Amino acid sequence: MAQHYRNLWRGTPRLAAHTFWWPIIRNDSFVLVTAAEGRVSDQNPDRFTGDARPIVVGNLAAHDGYVEFTLWWWGDFPYLDIWTDITVF
C-alpha cells in the first residue's frame, strides 16, 4: 500500500541535492516525488505554478531510511519555497 508525506522546503536553492528521511523507505522502494512552488498561508499546502517553471525533480535514489533527489527550475530565482509530495510504494 502506498504511503504519502508532504514537506515544505523553505528557501531551497536551485539545483540542490535534497535528502528526505523517512523510516518506511527501503533501498528497493519505488519512490515518487512531485514538486510545486509554494508559500505558507491559511491554505495549507499553498501550492501554485509561478514564474519558476518547470520545477524538475531528478536523480531520485532510495536508500534504507531516506531518499535523495535534486530540484531544479528555470528562471532567475536562486531560492524558492517548494512543496514536495513524496509517495512510497
The helix count comes to: 0
Radius of gyration: 13 Å
Order of helices and strands: EEEEEEE
Mean pLDDT: 96
* Spans of at least 5 consecutive residues with low confidence: none
**Terminal Cα span:** 6 Å
Biggest beta sheet attributes: 4 strands, antiparallel
> Which structural class matches the secondary elements?
mainly beta
Number of domains: 1
Q: What fraction of the residues are assigned to beta strands by DSSP?
A: over 45%
How many individual β-strands?
Answer: 7
The largest sheet has its strands arranged as: 1-7-3-4
**Basic shape:** globular
Helical fraction: under 10%
Summarize the structure in words.
By secondary structure, this protein is an all-beta fold. It has one domain (3-88). The chain is built from no helices and seven strands. The model has no long low-confidence stretch (mean pLDDT 96).
Question: Short description, anyone?
Answer:
0% of the residues lie in helices and 63% in strands. It is an all-beta fold and 89 residues long. The model has no long low-confidence stretch (mean pLDDT 96).
Features:
single chain; about 90 residues; three-stranded antiparallel β-sheet; about 0% helix; four-stranded antiparallel β-sheet
Write the layout of secondary structure elements.
Layout: E1 3-13, E2 16-21, E3 31-39, E4 46-48, E5 55-63, E6 66-73, E7 79-88
Antiparallel strand pairs: 1-7, 2-6, 3-4, 3-7, 5-6
